[in-house]
């Protein structure tokens, strides 16, 4: 199952059909709505060591959770399992782990955790997902609420100096901006890439770049999307921008401009990329492998492009001249855990031809 939320067809080949000919792409947003909360109102109270966050570095929705968990310093209370970048039509798999089995959950496929709770689960086996370790059952895959709950419900276990990514006085504005970004950018690139008709593609394309122009105007005068610090809204936009030139520009035909040809957004993205907790969670090698291999109906050769040059992500962005403080009164997160470090060659390869 893909991060895109589409439903599988029959068979087990990696090359599922992601495009429905003649139709507009529509994301299935029916996620498991169970919440992990401080009061445990859904039967799942916040508890150190009880849950495991399952992600794939290739997936932009999962990447949000990786970033937020790190910024808030929740590594010691919420462990993380990492799926490989490709999957078949059944499930994401733990092929990066020894013998292809998650070392904590002891399962080879994420679907095992879904079926442990819902034996007849009918929808996509998506990441991110949070699994209860003692039972081996999935709790939630509701990606918009996972990160919000990490910020609000897990507050007791935040590190000293953790930023407030969802401040109460800015929540309505954060929600409004995040919804526009989701509709036209986060999901908009998929509506381009998985469009089943010329008309639906062009409509999604126009909305995508109209929203990117709107974001350019907004970010021309302020360093971050809402307020003068990093918030949930920035996390949500960043994971799409990070994949734009490597995947969406070519593979999804979002080709009016590359990100690197839109100076304001390019500098904004590099500002975040160079902020601890953002760029060091990005694995460009896995990102490209996922999209270009799994989406076989879009890229039947499954050839993974060699570019783009990653060194430009580390060049000066000069966004600090707009003011603002990334972590507010807080501090940057500590370096990633050794077992969670992205190889430098996958993250910001500075070698050029």
From TrEMBL:
<feature type="binding site">
    <location>
        <position position="92"/>
    </location>
    <ligand>
        <name>glutathione</name>
    </ligand>
</feature>
<dbReference type="InterPro" id="IPR016639">
    <property type="entry name" value="GST_Omega/GSH"/>
</dbReference>
<feature type="region of interest" description="Disordered">
    <location>
        <begin position="1"/>
        <end position="21"/>
    </location>
</feature>
<feature type="active site" description="Proton donor/acceptor">
    <location>
        <position position="190"/>
    </location>
</feature>
<feature type="domain" description="GST C-terminal">
    <location>
        <begin position="167"/>
        <end position="294"/>
    </location>
</feature>
<dbReference type="InterPro" id="IPR040079">
    <property type="entry name" value="Glutathione_S-Trfase"/>
</dbReference>
<dbReference type="GO" id="GO:0004364">
    <property type="term" value="F:glutathione transferase activity"/>
</dbReference>
<dbReference type="InterPro" id="IPR036282">
    <property type="entry name" value="Glutathione-S-Trfase_C_sf"/>
</dbReference>
<keyword id="KW-0808">Transferase</keyword>
<dbReference type="Pfam" id="PF13410">
    <property type="entry name" value="GST_C_2"/>
</dbReference>
<dbReference type="InterPro" id="IPR036249">
    <property type="entry name" value="Thioredoxin-like_sf"/>
</dbReference>
<dbReference type="GO" id="GO:0005737">
    <property type="term" value="C:cytoplasm"/>
</dbReference>
<dbReference type="InterPro" id="IPR010987">
    <property type="entry name" value="Glutathione-S-Trfase_C-like"/>
</dbReference>
<feature type="active site" description="Nucleophile">
    <location>
        <position position="59"/>
    </location>
</feature>
<feature type="site" description="Lowers pKa of active site Cys">
    <location>
        <position position="291"/>
    </location>
</feature>
<protein>
    <submittedName>
        <fullName>Glutathione S-transferase family protein</fullName>
    </submittedName>
</protein>
<feature type="site" description="Lowers pKa of active site Cys">
    <location>
        <position position="248"/>
    </location>
</feature>
<dbReference type="InterPro" id="IPR047047">
    <property type="entry name" value="GST_Omega-like_C"/>
</dbReference>
<feature type="compositionally biased region" description="Polar residues">
    <location>
        <begin position="1"/>
        <end position="12"/>
    </location>
</feature>
<feature type="region of interest" description="Disordered">
    <location>
        <begin position="317"/>
        <end position="353"/>
    </location>
</feature>
């Amino acid at each position: 199952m893909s991060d895109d939320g589409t439903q599988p067809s029959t068979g087990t080949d990696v090359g599922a059909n992601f495009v429905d000919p003649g139709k507009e792409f529509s994301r299935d947003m029916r996620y498991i709505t169970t919440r992990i909360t401080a009061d445990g109102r859904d039967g799942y109270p916040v508890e150190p060591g009880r849950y495991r966050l399952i992600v794939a570095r290739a997936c932009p929705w999962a990447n949000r959770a990786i970033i937020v968990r790190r910024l808030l310093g929740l590594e010691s209370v919420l462990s993380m399992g990492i799926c490989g970048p490709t999957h078949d039509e059944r499930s994401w798999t733990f092929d990066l782990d020894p013998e292809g089995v998650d070392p904590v959950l002891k399962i080879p496929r994420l679907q095992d955790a879904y079926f442990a709770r819902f034996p007849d689960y009918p929808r996509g086996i998506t990441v991110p997902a949070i699994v209860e370790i003692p039972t081996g059952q999935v709790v939630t895959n509701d990606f918009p609420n996972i990160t919000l709950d990490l910020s609000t419900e897990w507050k007791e276990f935040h590190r000293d100096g953790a930023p407030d990514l969802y401040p109460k006085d800015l929540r309505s504005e954060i929600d409004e901006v995040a919804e526009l970004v989701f509709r036209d950018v986060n999901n908009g690139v998929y509506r381009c890439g998985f469009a089943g008709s010329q008309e639906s593609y062009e409509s999604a394309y126009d909305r995508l770049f109209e929203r990117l122009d709107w974001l350019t105007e907004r970010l021309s005068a302020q360093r971050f999307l809402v307020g003068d610090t990093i918030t949930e809204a920035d996390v949500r936009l960043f994971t799409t921008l990070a994949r734009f030139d490597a995947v969406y520009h070519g593979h999804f035909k979002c080709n009016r401009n590359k990100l690197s040809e839109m100076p304001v957004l390019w500098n904004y993205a590099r500002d975040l990329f160079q902020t601890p907790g953002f760029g060091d969670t990005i694995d460009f090698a896995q990102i490209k492998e996922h999209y270009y291999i799994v989406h076989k109906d879009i890229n039947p050769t499954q050839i993974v492009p060699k570019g783009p040059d990653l060194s430009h992500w580390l060049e000066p962005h000069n966004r600090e001249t707009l003011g603002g403080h990334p972590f507010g009164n807080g501090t940057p997160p500590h370096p990633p855990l050794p077992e969670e470090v992205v190889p430098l060659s996958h993250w910001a390869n500075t070698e050029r031809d």
